[in-house]
Amino acid sequence: MDENQPATGKPESENSPRIGVRIPRELPAARLTGLVRRAERVGLDEVWVVEDCFYAGGIATAATALAVTESVTVGIGVLPTVARSPAIAAMEIAALTGLHPGRLVAGFGHGVASWMRQIDAYPPSPLAALGETLTAVRRLLAGENVSVSGRHVRLDGVRLEFPPAVVPPVFAGVRGPKSLVVSGASADGTVLAEPAAPEYVRAARAAIEVGQTDPAGPHPIVTYNWFALDGDPDRATERARSAVASALTPGTEAHLRPLPFGDDLLNVIGDSATTDELAARLRPEWIEHLSISGDLGRCVEQVRRLHAAGSESVVLLPLDGEPEEAAVDAAGEVAEALRRSPTEL
User: Fold this and answer.
1) What is the domain partition of the chain in residue ranges?
2) 159-169 tens-digit pLDDT
3) Residue 122 belongs to what H/E stretch?
4) In sequence order, which ranges of the chain are alpha helices (DSSP H)?
5) Which of 14, 3, 112 has its CA nearest to residue 55?
6) What is the CATH number of domain 18-339?
């Protein structure tokens, strides 16, 4: 990778999505290094780590992932905006980028409201906190002297002593229309959580463009989706059933309303008392649409559809309870198939 290029941006060609894998938050930190090395070895473009309360920290895991690899991009998806001062966050990100130029994407999100209240960090205005933090971090990483007195961020003449020579992209990991507008206005790109179907990607892109000063300017989108590669497509769908159901939590309405079956699915969600009940009621075609699942040909086609909808990076999520090493290898198969035939459907 050219050190002067951002870690995640427009793909090398219009028909070449970047393929990544997300390391499950539930794994102990000791499992990280082997999986990240494996991801690089099988030819994946990106590895994403998570900072959720109260699992392993995102800065520490990203630093380790970068240190044990040579070329793969590492994304932090995402840091809770209100958990750190923007100045401290920028210091950490600048250090990682100075050590590993061109290989880091730093993501920020609102943080789960209940967790942020649990640590006494929930802000009066989550939207203001997100926008002000994104702006302040990006200005600090660019080497500016920053003074600001906002609703959430207050800095007085702060300037990094070691701003990175290669400024890393700062993304927002958000869901709803208002937050997507903030991402368009204040971030370099957006991470869309699972499930991220093509219709949702298009709707998100439209909201992002509302916030952009130049709607035609670059603003990469990263999409997360559960992943099941299987020679038997029907079996792949069944393997993904529980994971897809678990992702259909309150807050995902924005993901579902643009879907051709969105109203039907929302009714099923409203009528299901438990996640197990919801999983049992999901139609196979819904699961297929809300995941990257099937045989190799179908998975590749699903990735291409996401890319055509506007996702520059497609990140595959291993299923809970299945071997993560096998999921990484399977993601490598998808990446290799896309490289072999980048334009064929």
Assistant:
1) 18-339
2) 999 999 999 99
3) none
4) 32-41, 58-67, 86-99, 113-118, 126-141, 177-186, 198-211, 233-247, 253-256, 262-271, 275-281, 284-289, 296-309, 324-340
5) 112
6) 3.20.20.30
